[in-house]
Design goal:
Number of strands: 0
InterPro entries: NatA_aux_su (IPR021183), TPR-like_helical_dom_sf (IPR011990), TPR_rpt (IPR019734)
Keywords: Repeat, TPR repeat, Transferase
CATH class of one domain: Mainly Alpha
Radius of gyration: 33 Å
Distance between the termini: 79 Å
Organism: Ascodesmis nigricans
CATH architecture of one domain: Alpha Horseshoe
Number of helices: 45
Low-confidence stretches: 361-367
Protein name: N-terminal acetyltransferase A, auxiliary subunit
GO molecular function, one term: transferase activity
CATH topology of one domain: Serine Threonine Protein Phosphatase 5, Tetratricopeptide repeat
């Protein structure tokens, strides 16, 4: 087995300089020193390994791995070589291989603290808790004087569910420092609270309460202390003490709803008769004059005259103060028709009273209008803009009156924009929101709202210009670059959806690729906290972070982005193209040349902006003489996503989004399973598609799309030849056995589709689905079903837009659909 020779004294000193250069990111200097060593010692494995590591930092990954492999061949018994090999794998997120390399390094240097720490980081990152426990035991035995080594071991036991050993580890360390703890030792008392959480989660609530009381005097996080104590007392049924505990919490923060809920439970109030809780809220409303929760919560459970009296008091107080969020605070009550009517009658009566007192509206020249008058009109406008009581004409009428009284109140213009948005007039909505923005150009919120409305209206250039008013243009000339660095998820999502509506596939996929990288970065960012949190003693927050990371891809923003990205890749699969833009193939030769010329110009501009940014960053680095950072950042060679749109494997790209989405949200979201069917059906993975179909039907049997997916799946499989490689004989038999209970034989599909259409005659989405199914089956009546979807009473303008899209898909004349839809929603540009 080859083994490199030890270095001479002078070369060994140079090797130390290599290590230092790497740690301080002076890569070019380190590489030069490596070459100097290898000139005399060409087969020195450790120097070769360090050269590979430095080359990887300079962006030459393939070359780095080739050098590292040679280094392993030269010195297979060097822990440095294997450690470096592990670092290379880790940099490429090949964590399993990195762990294997670290374990090999430990075979030759089992006491290396650095390798053990790096291995532990990867094991917790990969959630290999059992391996993490073993590694942490070794680290703790090496340096038992450090608290963080004991705490890390306890965390491992805790996360694997071994509460007894987790508590035991923490208790052993406490025994070693008995009497040597200062009352301001944050790390110690934080660890005590963590230990208490472990005892509580083990189910021994009585002992957890005793332990909590024993550390109460010196615990620095008093809020956590009081909340945990109240929770324990409630679990133990010690209601009188629990009442006092929740009363103490309410005295500290009377706005926290959870404290009121706990107090109600402690007082034994029946959830079905919460009216008995009214005295609690009266007490705190009287005690704390400015407390909103004590006045708002009773509106959830009061009825009739009691509700009317409480709502009257609440609304008058808010409108008198001119609180813009009054309607937002109470709109949840609109789910109850009786309460909705009472609220409207109260506010309407206020308006009528004001009209009698101020018969002539002023326009800024006469007496100043009262706050109560202005915000009453504002409330009524929002009432008529609410989806349960929508009346655009009346909403705009009230807003117009309010604007006359207070022409510089931006909330009025924002709501006016929202009214137009709900009416489908996105152009006017965007203009109104921009008017509101100009009233307060220093307000970042209204700035971002304007950009959002511009994106909804597919005015992407205007949106990025608007966002550029608040980005760091001195650092990044292109505002989009700054938004990406700030991980502005909402903007990238809205931008992707806008580009997809315009069928600009390249930019659509570019935005979604950026979003995917951001979620990957959030997962990757854990590495820093595995050691930082232990060092700083933030144990409970660290454990909470790990649990949050485990559910990261169930976040609503990931779900929305994933569904959008998958739809884009499906569209790309269904509309193959050589240009990277499916819509481009439909253009005339002249229009195509014009479009490509503009695209080339935009791409050149984007590359120039990237080059300018890189030059500026290099200039800034050069100014800093105290530190030399030779890190090479990868240049974006595809700023417009042209290469992304030319992918030959769109379904495999879609799977990158789909797999974590199904894992995290597939059990609760039928739409996730339905889009999984679309991907697997196109991949000809019939059994996976069937599995997704069954799961979707289990989640929501009436979900729009299930019937269409069932019919399409049946039709696709029936059309397969008996010797089709994508479906073996056994699989076909299983498929038939599983699918038939969901679907009658093919001969009955026409009748079943008619029944389906009649059953869901009041749902626009289901009627559109029926139209698509009729087209798939070659049945007549798909045009009638589509037209019905636009005429349904509960249909909105977005249903009309979808109907136009489906008309294009099934071959119905768009003009007919637009005429009907335009008659109902005349402000929508898509129908003109």
């Amino acid at each position: 087995m080859p083994t490199s020779q030890p270095l001479a004294h002078k070369d060994a000193s140079l090797f130390k300089q290599v290590l230092k250069a790497y740690e301080t990111k002076q890569y070019k200097k380190g590489l030069k020193t490596c070459e100097q060593i290898l000139k005399k010692n060409p087969n020195h494995g450790e120097t070769m390994a360090m050269k590979g590591l430095i080359i990887n930092a300079l962006g030459r990954t393939e070359e780095a791995f080739a050098i590292a492999k040679d280094a392993v061949k030269q010195d297979m018994r060097s822990h440095v070589v294997w450690h470096v090999y592990g670092l290379l794998y880790r940099s490429e997120k090949m964590y399993d291989k990195a762990i294997g390399a670290y374990k090999m390094a430990l075979r030759f240097e089992p006491e290396s603290a650095q390798i053990l720490r790096d291995l532990a980081l990867l094991q917790i990152q990969m959630r290999d808790y059992h391996g993490y426990i073993e590694t942490r035991k070794t680290i703790m035995q090496q340096r038992p004087q450090l608290r963080q080594n004991w705490t890390a071991l306890a965390i491992g036991h805790h996360l694997v569910g071994d509460y007894a050993n987790a508590e035991k580890v923490l208790s052993k360390f406490e025994d070693t420092i008995q009497g040597n703890v200062h009352k301001w030792d944050f790390e110690h008392w934080e660890t005590c609270l963590y230990k208490n959480r472990i005892i509580g989660e083990s189910g021994d609530t009585e002992r957890a309460l005793e332990h909590l009381n024993s550390i109460a005097k010196n615990t620095l996080d008093k809020t956590a202390l009081y909340e945990t104590r109240a929770e324990y007392l409630l679990k133990l049924g010690r209601m009188e003490e629990a009442q006092k505990a929740y009363q103490l919490l309410l005295d500290r923060n009377p706005e926290r709803r959870a404290y009121y809920a706990g107090l109600e439970k402690a007082m034994g109030i029946d959830p079905s008769n919460r009216k008995a809780a009214k005295p609690i809220y009266d007490e705190y409303a009287e005690k704390y004059e400015r407390c909103d929760a004590a006045r708002r919560i009773p509106l959830d459970f009061l009825e009739g005259d009691d509700f009317k009296a409480a709502a009257d008091s609440y609304l008058r107080a808010k409108l008198n103060k001119g609180v813009p969020s009054t309607f937002a605070n109470i709109k949840a009550l609109y789910a109850d028709p009786a309460k909705r009517e009472i609220i409207f009658s109260l506010v309407n009566s206020y308006n009528e009273e004001q009209e009698k007192e101020e018969p002539a509206e002023t326009n800024g020249d006469g007496p100043k209008a009262s706050q109560f008058r202005i915000w009453t009109l504002y409330f009524l406008a929002q009432h008529y803009d609410h989806y349960r009581t929508r009346d655009m004409t009346k909403a705009l009428e009230y807003l117009e009156k309010a604007i006359k009284l207070a022409p510089k109140t931006l909330e009025l213009y924002m709501t006016e924009a929202r009214v137009y948005k709900h009416a489908g007039d996105l152009q006017t909505a965007m203009e109104k929101m921009d008017t509101a923005r100009k009233l307060d150009k220093s307000d970042r919120y209204i700035n971002t709202k304007t950009a959002k409305y511009q994106l909804r209206n597919d005015r992407n250039d205007d949106a990025i210009a608007t966002m550029g008013l608040f980005t760091r243009n001195d650092v990044n000339p292109n505002p989009l670059t700054d938004l990406i660095e700030m991980q502005c998820i909402w903007y990238l999502t809205e931008s992707a959806e806008s580009h997809f509506r315009q069928k600009q596939l390249g930019l659509t996929l570019k935005r979604y690729a950026t979003l995917l990288k951001i979620f990957d970065d959030w997962a990757e960012d854990q590495f820093d906290f595995h050691s930082f949190s232990l060092r700083k003693g933030q144990i409970r927050a660290y454990v909470d972070m790990l649990k949050w990371e485990d559910s990261l891809r169930s976040h609503p923003f990931y779900t929305r982005a994933a569904l959008g990205a998958i739809e884009a890749y499906i569209y790309l699969f269904d509309h193959p193209t050589t240009s990277g833009e499916p819509e481009l193939d439909k253009l005339s030769e002249a229009d195509r040349k014009k479009y490509l010329k503009k695209q080339k110009r935009d791409e050149t501009k984007a590359k120039e902006a990237a080059a300018a940014k890189a030059a500026k960053e290099k200039e800034e680095r050069n100014k800093n003489a105290s530190a030399s950072d030779d890190t090479v950042k990868k240049e974006d060679t595809d700023p417009l996503g042209v290469e992304l749109a030319k992918t030959k494997t769109p379904l495999e790209e879609a799977k990158k989004w789909l797999d974590p989405l199904v894992k995290m949200s597939g059990d609760t979201n039928a739409r996730v399973q339905l889009i999984a069917i679309e991907v697997e059906r196109r991949r000809q993975k019939w059994l996976l598609a069937l599995k997704a179909l069954k799961k979707a039907k289990e989640i929501d049997p009436q979900a729009e799309g299930i019937w269409e997916a069932t019919v399409r799946l049946r039709k696709d499989v029936s059309a397969l030849p008996t010797d089709a490689p994508s479906l073996s004989t056994d699989s076909r038999t299983l498929f038939e056995e599983e699918l038939l209970p969901l679907l009658a034989p093919t001969a009955d599909l026409a009748a079943l589709t008619t029944d389906y259409e009649n059953t869901h005659s009041g749902s626009p989405a289901h009627l559109r689905e029926a139209a698509r199914v009729r087209k798939v089956l070659g049945l007549e009546g798909f045009e009638d079903a589509l037209m019905k979807s636009v005429k349904v009473e509960k249909a909105g303008w977005k249903d009309g837009v979808e109907a136009v899209r489906v008309a294009r898909e099934v071959g119905v004349e768009e003009r007919k659909v637009k005429e009907v839809a335009g008659g109902r929603w005349g402000r929508v540009a898509a129908f003109k």
